[in-house]
Amino acid sequence: MAARPAPYLDELNPAQRAAVEALDGPVLMLAGAGTGKTKALTARIVHLLNTGRAQPNEILSVTFTNKAAREMKERVGRMLGQAVEGMPWLGTFHAICVKLLRRHAELVGLKSNFTILDTDDQIRLLKQLIAANNIDDKRWPARQLAGIIDHWKNRAWTPENVPGAEAGAFNGRGIELYTQYQTRLRELNATDFGDLLLHMVTIFQQHDDVLAQYRRWFKYILVDEYQDTNVAQYLWLRLLAGGHKNICCVGDDDQSIYGWRGAEVGNILRFEKDFPGAQVVRLEQNYRSTPHILAAASNVISGNEGRLGKTLWTESEHGEKVRLIGHWDGEEEARWIGEEIEAMQSGTRGMRPFDLDDIAILVRASHQMRAFEDRFLTIGLPYRVIGGPRFYERMEIRDAMAYFRVVVSPTDDLAFERIVNTPKRGLGDKAQQKIQMAARSNGVPLVEGARILLDEKGLGGKGAKELALLIDGIDRWGRMAGDPDLTHMELAEIILDESGYTAMWQNDKTPEAPGRLENLKELVKALEQFENLAGFLEHVALIMDNDKGDDGAKVSIMTLHAAKGLEFPAVFLPGWEDGLFPSQRSMDETGLKGLEEERRLAYVGITRAEEICTISFAGNRRVFGQWQSQLPSRFIDELPEEHVEVLTPPGLYGGGYGAAAPVQSGIETRASEANVYNSPGWKRMQSRSSARPVSQPRETRNTVIDLDAVSAHTVGERVFHQKFGYGAIIGIEGDKLEVDFEKAGVKKVVARFVTGADD
Ligand code: ATP
Ligand code: MG
Prior knowledge:
This is DNA 3'-5' helicase. By secondary structure, the chain is of the alpha/beta class. The protein contains 30 helices and 21 strands.
């Protein structure tokens, strides 16, 4: 096929163009933020299609989020000047692997309609296993085991090849429990997220014919955000690209922010070794941000050691300096940002007017979102939360979906467990155990176990009657799912009505009940976009963001992690306080690894901004219901002064803060205003002196009180205290613990101020 004209190539600079036109063999694009890596990657797809090198379905392209995948598809269409007929293999690692695994499930002992468990289900399952093994789940909580197993899966270790060095994990029972967990998942015909990749790696490693088939099929492989791939993802890519080696990876070592989830920045550094002869393209021109923003980001990241190091320059106009502002407390910060956004809409201080879609608030921790959500609801400022606490994670939504899951796949025991006594059917723990036993002894799923139990009259009274109704219901709804005259939206409503689930909330007198009913309606609405319930359930299992749906302009709120790869004309970065950002945990760690990852996160945050970047911090913050004093983030000290403008908070010098002062809680808490404004960074900013910023180690004085952490402790247990860090319990006296802290030495602390170290 003769190549059509390629206007998309004219939009690229020479280095980008080189990366796009080098179609054969391995290519690595290693460059800083905003240099057009994603743009070049997209152009490469277009170029492959335009030159007839590959059909849309022969290109495998991996993005970091579903949102990024959608956007890339749209851009390919735009650049190509025509709609692309499906790009079925453009998506996240998970989305691509789930499709592949459905085709080859039997090779790892699953059926093609396997369910994908979410974290909740996973934890429930692990709890059961821990109990079945007579392990004390107080000392050895399921969450901890889940973390260990995830870690192993991220490293592509099946139970058989977890290395010996890990044998001590989870009190020496980790590997054994991992084995049992995998067996149980197979029995349930289920996978967790980590399995999607792990199973595919196993299949490719053990079945040469399957691997060969896909090596032929995927003629070209492209990967965005390569610095955040974990070992399993890396192995999977290396297996697939091993034949033709037409693989193009793009990334930025300075933006590696998923180390805590097993990502290995080493993957990007190793690329040239893995693929000898790889072309390495470096991009240096930044097209996104103003020089002030770029300088601020570059200065912060220069504090990290062992970087590849990159030069970034831009032709864009100077624009505004990075703005820095301190507030009395978190509420005040939210109020100010709300007002500032409203002002920005109409244009203030000589700025151009901004649309709400142009503005984003990027937080370090998702609990920071609530203050903004509350404030914006109050003032009627439209916002969306991206990747935050999701609609699909709400209790009523999860219940409803469990009903759908049982109907779509009656072997889904976890879903059945969730709904069997919701609403209350008089089927308490005892009855449920009987169902479990009937299922176990007959080697059948719970639904069948329940049927057997009823047939054998093993259950009596109200419970038996209700259970029979439920089982009948499941059978009937299952048949209805095949009825061509009934839409799946109608079916969903029928299921929720006939099961008594809707009525349960209608009769509920709590203030949340009306909202829950609204959500259920919303859920049925959401089904419309899908062909059937099964398709919908799969979608929900995979979505990472909840920003679909309505169209009006909105401010975006998300975590820094979720903001990767995105850009906004105006960005707010609130909560730059030691203990929040960088996180307390990273500050307490020995070594700099955690702190350096936080610094990369700061770099990611600042570089999302095109024109206006506003960093803020509060002097007081309420954490778990307690006030605590905060110091400005050490990263603020690393901002280059000549590129920063310090804003004065409203009322600071007009005495307006008296009214907003938080209530004292009694425990070491509230900072005096002086604490905040005496910090070296703040003083330096205020005086606008031209001295070079010096980063000073600071004493950590934050006290965070975790009210949920009131639980039994044992001598020898490793614990974490927000102030003193990690240590081991050496004595217990009532509610006081004597702890030998690694850094702070032996101290007596109140039990409820410590948490299990591995929680
Ligand atoms: P990140 O590291 O944050 O993911 P990136 O390197 O992927 O950034 P892109 O998102 O691809 O960068 O590009 C940043 C911005 O610069 C986009 O708005 C893009 O359209 C623009 N851009 C990229 N290359 C060019 C170019 N050659 N000419 C004009 N604009 C460009
Ligand atoms: Mg990008």
